[in-house]
Amino acid sequence: MEIYDILKTDHRNVLTMIDAVEKADEDNRKSILTLIHTELAMHSKAEEEVFYRPLKKRLSSHEVIDYSFDDHDEIDKLLGKLQLS
Question: What pTM does this model have?
Answer without folding.
Answer: 0.77
